[in-house]
Amino acid sequence: MGKTAAHPYTEKKHRHRLVFSGTVNFRADTVTLPNGKKATREFVDHPGAVAVLPVLPDGRIVFVRQFRYPVGLATLEIPAGKLNGPRDNPLKRVKAELKEETGYTAKKITPILSYWPTPAFSTEVLYIYTATGLSGGAPNPDEDEFLTLETIPFEKAWQMVETGRIRDSKTVIALQAWKIKLLEKK
Length: 186
What we know:
Blueprint: E1 12-15, E2 18-20, E3 25-32, E4 38-45, E5 49-54, E6 60-68, E7 73-77, E8 80-82, H1 90-102, E9 105-115, E10 126-135, E11 147-153, H2 154-162, H3 169-185
Parallel strand pairs: 5-10
Antiparallel strand pairs: 1-3, 2-3, 3-4, 5-8, 6-7, 6-11, 9-10
Helix pairs in contact: 2-3
């Protein structure tokens, strides 16, 4: 997602301040508002991420369940991972994440959409794909990732969204997009 044309409410960076540097950076920039006043904008400078909806030939979806420290729960999600910087190719990264987290490789990987998950406080762009024509293998998660695989029929997964048992936004959006695709085929 590129930059768009200037808007009359555009804020201009006056001063850049790096608060923390790590996997993601935290910034507190001073901006000049359209009315000439100054304000501070605190946000996460994020390299971006990819996610994939792996669909088995029988229509079941492959999910990973993993503990998410910020929410204090094990969540059911589609496989995903951060980009390794601005030059990392999302398609190559999503193939690597699929193999790493699930052990599967795909004959076909199709982009669904890209979006800003939280544009009010992050620069992250998330690229979502579907993966079909899956061939199995052994997962090889990162040393700090502890996850289990679950395969769930699409209809049941959708019920889990509707009842709040799946709450991860990228997973909900990917399942919504897949539901639309299934409805278009009818």
